[in-house]
Design a protein that fits this description.
Its EC number is 1.2.1.84. One of its GO terms (molecular function) is alcohol-forming long-chain fatty acyl-CoA reductase activity. Catalyzes the reduction of fatty acyl-CoA to fatty alcohols. Keywords: Lipid biosynthesis, Lipid metabolism, NADP, Oxidoreductase. Residues 2-211 form the Thioester reductase (TE) domain. This protein is α/β, with parallel strands linked by helices. It has a domain at 1-155. The protein is built from nine helices and ten strands. Strands 1-2-3-8 form a four-stranded parallel β-sheet, with helices on both faces. The chain has a two-stranded parallel sheet with strand order 4-7. The radius of gyration is 22 Å and the shape is globular.
């Protein structure tokens, strides 16, 4: 294979926002590095295409420059100014050894490693483990040989396809898909967010088509590395409120079926713009059903926990 491969496309990733830190580092960060090492052993390699995410840029607004991350770089708002990837790797290894010494259960290890990932991400300025480890993966690709063209593709939220292989095709539940399904099953009654905020989504086949065009054009570009952002918010912005209406309209005309084969009737979901309105909604709709004082106290503890997590 090393004598035959000339183009490598790396799209492997775990996209869970709160993935275990060791798992996310292994796939999103060091997985990219391992594929890069394989590429350097290919005698005919000409191009390496790496699929990242637009959200490695954090909470930046406006036009986002298509520029690379350099090793050690952090985002604005980081609590420390340098990202030491070797230190992050060592922290993961030490934590896992500690859990082994304590005979911790798999459930305890999984919970602790998820929390560790979120903590390390926020320490360096990223919102969650997914985007943090994808950014590290980009940094690790800096070592790619100069004679190999590198394309880093950063799509926004990838949805089901627009046309190919047919409209609406998807495999599994990814990103927003789980929200659509939960709403269609009548399980999701409200959303928390700004109705005027823009959701940047891009169909999967458009991302693939763009990658093919970039691969065809890249050999003629003088730069060793090119980065492309793929999104829709500039030319075709979709407001949160509009998506809410589209879901209701579509699922009213094309309802999902329950286990007995009957159509599931959906209601217009509410958009709660603040955590205060979320607290009021929960208290009015669900608190009367909590008869026990102990349960009620536990409920407010849960609300406080949700509020802190949202900050």
């Amino acid at each position: 294979m090393w004598q035959e491969v000339d183009i490598i496309v790396n799209s492997a990733a775990t996209t869970k926002f709160d993935e275990r830190y060791d798992v996310a580092m292994g796939i999103n960060a060091f997985g990219a590095m391992h594929v890069q090492k394989f590429a350097t052993n290919c005698s005919k390699i000409e191009m390496f295409v790496h699929v990242s995410t637009a959200y490695v840029q954090g909470s930046s607004v406006g036009l986002i420059p298509e520029k690379p991350f350099h090793r050690g770089e952090t985002l604005d708002g980081a609590k420390i100014s340098y990202l030491d990837i070797d230190t992050e790797k060592r922290i993961v290894e030490e934590r896992l050894r500690g859990f082994e010494a304590q005979n911790a259960t798999e459930l305890e290890i999984a919970s602790a490693m998820r929390n560790l990932g979120i903590d390390r991400a926020k320490l360096h300025g990223w919102a969650n483990t997914y985007v943090f480890t994808k950014a590290i993966g980009e940094m690790l690709l800096e070592k790619l040989e100069e004679n190999v063209k590198l394309i880093i593709v950063r799509p926004t939220i990838i949805t089901s396809t627009y046309k190919e292989p047919f409209s609406g095709w998807t495999e599994g539940l990814r990103t927003l898909d789980s929200i659509f399904v939960a709403y269609g099953k009548g399980k999701l009654k409200f959303f928390v967010g700004d109705p005027n905020s823009t959701l940047d989504m891009i169909p999967g086949d458009m991302v693939v088509n763009f990658m093919l065009v970039a691969m065809a054009m890249h050999p003629n570009q003088p730069s060793h590395m090119l980065i492309y952002h793929i999104g829709s918010s500039l030319r075709n912005p979709l407001k949160f409120a509009d998506m809410n209406w589209l879901m209701y309209n579509y699922l009213t005309q094309n309802p999902l079926l329950d286990t007995s084969g009957k159509p599931i009737k959906v209601e217009k979901s509410k958009i709660l713009e603040t955590m205060a309105s979320f607290h009021r909604y929960i208290a009015i709709r669900y608190l009367p059903f909590l008869q026990s004082k102990a349960i009620g106290e536990g409920f407010f503890v849960l609300l406080e926990f949700v509020h802190k997590k949202s900050l």
